[in-house]
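Data deposition worksheet. Section B asks for the primary sequence of the deposited chain exactly as it was used as input, without tags or linkers unless they were present during the calculation. Section C holds the resulting structure in token form. Section D is free text for depositor observations; keep each observation to a single sentence. Incomplete worksheets are returned to the depositor.
Section A, Depositor: J.P.
Section B:
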Amino acid sequence: MRKIVHIDMDAFYASVEQRDDPKLRGKPVVVAWRGARSVVCAASYEARRFGVRSAMPAVRAERLCPHAIFVPPDFSRYRAVSKQVREIFLRHTELVEPLSLDEAYLDVTAPKSGLDSATAVARSIRKTIADETALTASAGVAPNKFLAKIASDWRKPDGLFVIRPHEAQAFLAPLAVAKIPGVGKVMDAQLARIGIRTCADLRLRDVRDLEQRFGRYGRRLHELSRGIDERPVEPDQPVQSISTEDTFERDLPLSAIEATIRTLAARTWAASRKTPRIGRTVVLKLKTADFHILTRSHTPSTPPQSESEFVEIAASLTERVGMPQTTLYRLVGVGLHNFCDADELPQPELFG
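Section C:
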């Protein structure tokens, strides 16, 4: 049986800002650029008391908390702290699966630090993070990734919660299905319509009925409601996609955003040069003024070989958008997807 720890830094970006600027401590801090199109990257717990949350439009955050202090994000600083925290993880295990700059799974079934339990490892990590970074982290300890992630949120901030194998069934029974990772507002509403509000409700449903309604995810939901999650911790996940995007100050027609597409494509290409893996599919992403998202993609017979080639493919995808010319867009993104290792590419025919 695995022993999994999920570590989640508390209000990470905002906490770094409060740590580095004493004037911000104890104040409602919102990490975001000001502006009609900006979204909240992070909010301190003082700001969260007013309902401010990550991914919320910045203008709404300002309405909810008029006295909030807005701080523009500094991702280079956050990455540096994240690297410092990652090094602390690696003192205990090589099996570290980062999910983002501020959270990760650790498999500590056999910790190299020699501590006698996963709970002891989690305590040690949290103390070391506090000592070496002056930040707090919450931890969840459980026999699998699903339960560990739920546990880490149970006593936030600066908390530790343990779900032991024999406790999982009783713990999950009253848990709202909305707490299951992947169950968003739409899925939660669909489940509510058929009377499913808790994991106990999910368990009572025939798995075949759930599969018929929700496809493979229906079976996945049934397994999670019973605490089943066989996914291993997978360190150093290979790059699958790289993208950059930009939100406009005002909505623009497609004819006015080609220069932005070319700029974003150049940035994406530069970022892709940092990995030895090769991207094969060029993707254009657009978000309309009414928040409808559409994508167009192209996979050439051979992967793009240069920045200029990649930029031209990205720009040409506008020809396949197929929306009325009057359509306005609030966001555009360019991505390179479908990465593989060089030896996975199809080999050219020697004789044809």
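Section D:
The chain is about 35% helix and 20% strand.
The first strand starts at residue 4 and ends at 9.
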